[in-house]
Amino acid sequence: MARFRPDLRERDVTPEPLWLRRREFLALGAAGAAALALPRSARAGDPTGQALPVAKKIEKAGGEEPTKWDAITTYNNFYELGADKADPARNAGSLRPRPWTVAIEGEVRKPGNLDVDALMKSFPLEERIYRMRCVEAWSMVIPWVGFPLADLVKRVEPTSKARYVAFQTLLDPEQLPGQRRRVLEWPYVEGLRIDEATHPLALLAVGLYGRVLPNQDGAPLRLVVPWKYGFKGAKSIVKIRFQEEQPPTTWNRMAPDEYGFYANVNPDVDHPRWSQARERRIGEFFRRKTLPFNGYADEVASLYAGLDLRKNY
Ligand SMILES: Nc1nc2c(c(=O)[nH]1)N[C@H]1C(S)=C(S)[C@@H](COP(=O)(O)O)O[C@H]1N2
Ligand SMILES: [Mo]
C-alpha cells in the first residue's frame, strides 16, 4: 500500500509493472522460438508447484481472462517479505509453510489446532475464479483453489456470542524478515463480521491455478474476500478467533482515515489521496471502471443494508 510516500500521486501508486512486461517481451523475443517449441507445461511463466485435487470449478469473474501466473506470483503485497511489489517473490524462501497449524479460538464449541494438510483433505477443494481489487487501484482475475470459509466456521460451531471473526498472520521474524522492522504493527491482523465470514463467496485459499499456493501469495492458507479491497485477505494465517467485539485490523490501526474495517470496494468513496472510480487490470493498458462491491453487489449488497457506506468504508 502507499502509506510511506505521502508525496505519491495516483499514477505513482499504480506503477506499470515493467518487469512483467519485460519478461513477456523477452519470452517472445530472443528466447521466444525456443520457448514455444517446449511443451506447454515447461514454458517460462507457466504455473509450477505441486498440483492439487480440484473437485469443482466455479467461474465468478464474468468470463474475464485470468491474470497470468507470472503476474500473480511476482506482483504482490506481503509486507513481511518486503514493501515493494517484487520483494515477496524474491524473499519468499524464508517462509516454511509446512508443517503448519491454524489455531481456532474464542467463541466456538470446537476450538483446537488444525493441521493444514488435514484441513485440506477434509474439505473438497474448489477452483474459484474471482476478480480481486487492491485499494491501490489495480486489479487481477485470480483462479484460487480453496474451500469456503463458511465450511470451516460451521465445523467449529460458533456460539451465539461469535459476532466477529479475527484472522492473524504468522509472527516469526526468522521466516518473515520484514517483521524485523516496524513498518506495520506485527502480526498482521484482519477481521470480518460473522455474516461476512459465512457468505458463500468468502474463501480460504490454499492454491492458485490448480497448484499449491506460492509463499509470496500467502502459503499455506490465506483469506480471500473478493468484494473487499485486497488488504482484507490476510496471508499465512496461524489463528482464527471468534469473538463478540469487532477486532482491530492492521491497516485501520495504521491509518484509520484511509482504511476502514469494512473495506468494501466502493468506486464512490475515494481514498483520501486518490480516486477509487477506476482501476488498472494488471496486464492491460486502459483503465476500467471499478464496480460496486467489485462486481459482486448482487450477492453481497444485502449484507450492508442500512449501513452508511461512506461512513463505514
Ligand atoms: N500478512 C499479510 N497479508 C496481506 C498483506 C500483507 O502485507 N501482509 N497485504 C494485503 C494486501 S494490501 C493485498 S492487495 C493482498 C495481496 O495479495 P496477493 O499478493 O496474493 O495478490 O494481500 C493482503 N494480505
Ligand atoms: Mo492491497
TrEMBL record:
<keyword id="KW-0500">Molybdenum</keyword>
<dbReference type="Pfam" id="PF00174">
    <property type="entry name" value="Oxidored_molyb"/>
</dbReference>
<dbReference type="InterPro" id="IPR022867">
    <property type="entry name" value="MsrP"/>
</dbReference>
<comment type="function">
    <text>Part of the MsrPQ system that repairs oxidized cell envelope proteins containing methionine sulfoxide residues (Met-O), using respiratory chain electrons. Thus protects these proteins from oxidative-stress damage caused by reactive species of oxygen and chlorine. MsrPQ is essential for the maintenance of envelope integrity under bleach stress, rescuing a wide series of structurally unrelated cell envelope proteins from methionine oxidation. The catalytic subunit MsrP is non-stereospecific, being able to reduce both (R-) and (S-) diastereoisomers of methionine sulfoxide.</text>
</comment>
<feature type="binding site">
    <location>
        <begin position="233"/>
        <end position="235"/>
    </location>
    <ligand>
        <name>Mo-molybdopterin</name>
    </ligand>
</feature>
<feature type="binding site">
    <location>
        <position position="222"/>
    </location>
    <ligand>
        <name>Mo-molybdopterin</name>
    </ligand>
</feature>
<feature type="binding site">
    <location>
        <position position="76"/>
    </location>
    <ligand>
        <name>Mo-molybdopterin</name>
    </ligand>
</feature>
<comment type="subunit">
    <text>Heterodimer of a catalytic subunit (MsrP) and a heme-binding subunit (MsrQ).</text>
</comment>
<feature type="binding site">
    <location>
        <position position="169"/>
    </location>
    <ligand>
        <name>Mo-molybdopterin</name>
    </ligand>
</feature>
<dbReference type="InterPro" id="IPR036374">
    <property type="entry name" value="OxRdtase_Mopterin-bd_sf"/>
</dbReference>
<dbReference type="InterPro" id="IPR006311">
    <property type="entry name" value="TAT_signal"/>
</dbReference>
<protein>
    <recommendedName>
        <fullName>Protein-methionine-sulfoxide reductase catalytic subunit MsrP</fullName>
        <ecNumber>1.8.5.-</ecNumber>
    </recommendedName>
</protein>
<keyword id="KW-0479">Metal-binding</keyword>
<feature type="binding site">
    <location>
        <position position="134"/>
    </location>
    <ligand>
        <name>Mo-molybdopterin</name>
    </ligand>
</feature>
<comment type="similarity">
    <text>Belongs to the MsrP family.</text>
</comment>
<keyword id="KW-0732">Signal</keyword>
<feature type="domain" description="Oxidoreductase molybdopterin-binding">
    <location>
        <begin position="96"/>
        <end position="251"/>
    </location>
</feature>
<feature type="binding site">
    <location>
        <begin position="79"/>
        <end position="80"/>
    </location>
    <ligand>
        <name>Mo-molybdopterin</name>
    </ligand>
</feature>
<keyword id="KW-0560">Oxidoreductase</keyword>
<dbReference type="InterPro" id="IPR000572">
    <property type="entry name" value="OxRdtase_Mopterin-bd_dom"/>
</dbReference>
